[in-house]
Amino acid sequence: MPAIELDHVSRVYQKYSARHRFQTFKSAIVKGDLFKSLKADELVEAVSDVTFAVEKGQTFGLIGENGSGKSTILKMVAGIAKPSSGRISVQGKVSALIELGAGFHPEISGRENVYINGIMLGLSKKEITRKFDEIVRFAELEEFIEAPVKTYSSGMYMRLGFSIAINVNPEVLLIDEVLAVGDAAFVPKCLDRIDDFRRRKKTILFVSHDLSTVAKICNKVAWMKNGRVQMMGDPKRVVDAYMQDVTEEQEAEFLERKEEATAAAALESEAAPASPPAETIPAAVTTSASAAADAAAAAPVPAEPAPAETAASDDARREQRWGKREVEIRSVTLRNGRGEEKHVFHPGESLLIDLDLSAREPVKDFVFGIGVFNSMGIMCYGTNTYIEEYEPVALSGEGRVVCRIEELPLINGTYYLDVAVHKRDGYPYDYHRNMYSFLVSSMIRDEGVARLPHSWEFSPGIKVQVPEKDGTPEK
Amino acid sequence: MKLSDNLKEVWKHRLLIRTLVSRELKARYRGTVLGFFWSFFNPLLLMIVYTVVFGFVIPARDKSIGEPLQYAVFLFCGLLPWTWFSSSSNDSANVLMVNGNLIKKIMFPAEVLPIVSVTANFVHFLFGLPILFIFLIIFGRPLTLFLLLVPLVMLVQYVFSLGFSLLLSALTVHFRDIKDILGNLLTFWFFATPIIYNFYNPDLNPLLKKVLAFNPMTHIFIAYQDCFFWGRLFHWKRLGITFLAALVLFWIGYSVFNRLRDSFPEEV
Predict the structure, then answer these.
(1) How deeply is A22 buried, as exposed, middle or buried, from its count of CB atoms within 10 A (0-12, 13-18, 19+)?
(2) Residue in A with minimal Cα distance to B260
(3) How many contacts (CB atoms, under 8 Å) link A and B?
(4) Does A25 touch chain B (CB under 8 A)?
(5) CA–CA separation, B205 and A352 (whole Å)
(6) Which of A129, A110, A201 minimizes the C-alpha distance to A167?
(7) Which of A160, B8, B30, B53 has the most crowded CB, counting CB atoms within 10 A?
(8) Where among A244, A262, A286 does a domain terminate?
(9) pLDDT tens for each residue of A270-279
(10) Is the alpha carbon torsion for B124, B130, B133, B135 positive or negative?
(11) Closest by alpha carbon to A440, among A250, A291, A162, A295?
């Protein structure tokens, strides 16, 4: 017998327009449309025709974007909201970690609030008395339990709320992203408790954006999209599919943003022709400090950024192009290992920077360079053909240069790209500064500039549980 | 959802209602100097003001009650239950907004909140009764067995208040100006109810009397005065009809509340 069962469940919300907020009873009476003004302006289907079952003892994950209906499902399972149609059945006592300490009254003591909150969560007075010490001990609030809750810090508030909810000792635990707000010391304690629940074969319904945790702890995962179950089944497969979908959407969004930025830049360049700021010549694209200085001297450098530039957005300010274009980079295309044009990459994927060139006159001195910057403007990597000792011989007419980066060991985030063709002394033919950008989409939450390839080793005395290869689709 | 299902659901949450009522009372007294005394401070103050004004400043034309101090006791019989009604109405108008986070995040039927408002104010009213009895004894009013019927009157007022509060709390979510309108309405209603004057005063304009009889509150308050002040049986037929009216209001209030229930989590 499943612990939670949803049978063709839909939930429609009544939505009122913004105008509704300002309506008054007086005007409704005067206009005589009292009943009309109580009608919803529009109906929104938050969850439509969802069917799934969670077996007893299972940990079931719900993933999906914001507004996909996950929380609504959780609320319906908890009984806070009722389905508009369909049937939900839940076996056993439910406790929802949705909003911790929601019922606390600031004026009265922690002790009294424990009782009231416990009763709201369905405990009897006797049960609370029995568990009281455990609740207070877990929340680490022994000294403050007699003080009014208004004197608590937000961390204490949350700890007490969590402690009560978890001590309800439910058969079914609903968790909605609550751990995102906890303080660093308390969260592991909570996760420990949740683990304990899993071991004791209680049923957990888990809503989270933390995909690696979902893939790790859930037995089964459903991916919600626009109120429907898009896919359900093995956690790793579902998380992978979801990631894929998110990537595609990011891609689309990325292109849209880029178009907007281009349009904005076009407007701006009409107002004030862009010129390269002196301090931003990257040393790795040119070859040496002196060369950089030469290049800077060669370019017409204003002493201060033009007014239009300071007013422009961050992105626009950083994008520059300069050089006389004896050799022109006509276009730059980013591709993945299979040659498809892309803007969102996973760390394991290859990135191909494809330069389409055309030389006005034959040249004998040329260097191709790239530079990758993160959103903070820090160069993550830069190189050029001169550093790598490719000796230029001749270049004329049209051509193509591809820089193939086998893997992208970068952390999650947006990156900007410099590409350039210049002389060995740094004299630029065509320099594209931060004109291209791409996204690295990674589930791993490491930090820094780049991911150094690494592994861990432990002596036999140290026991660790090796993670299963998590859901990152690193192909 | 049928009304009987609603009531069953509410009954299931009686422990919660009890706890919330005691929380309400505790929170109200916490951090106040006078503490529990506040329960009857308000009606007491009103009583003093009206006694001074109508007993000494403007001599009452109504000779049916007697000397000013008797009049003060008469006033108190009505002011005490009126405070219950007006406070619970005022609280209910706010209660869904004030407790918005509860409605959104915790599972319990929203009608618990106006019920708690009415009930908490009812308990205040009960706390004030000993003072009333002390007055009745000091000023030599007859304490009769009809006092045992007072709970019936309270029941009628309780149902009536509940219906009114359900209606108010649900509508205020959508029309925020109801709170302001309510203040005026309650003032008007106060004077339209025989609290500071005697309904049985033979000098009262008969036409006015007929009009006043349409106010359900009139019969409730006359019944209080009959039991407490005059020590006689109230007009049970009128009170019975008032009880029916209270039930109808309760039904209307609950229906409106049910109809708008789904919109609360979004709108509060």
Answers:
(1) exposed
(2) A38
(3) 77
(4) yes
(5) 98
(6) A129
(7) A160
(8) A244
(9) 665 444 444 4
(10) negative
(11) A250
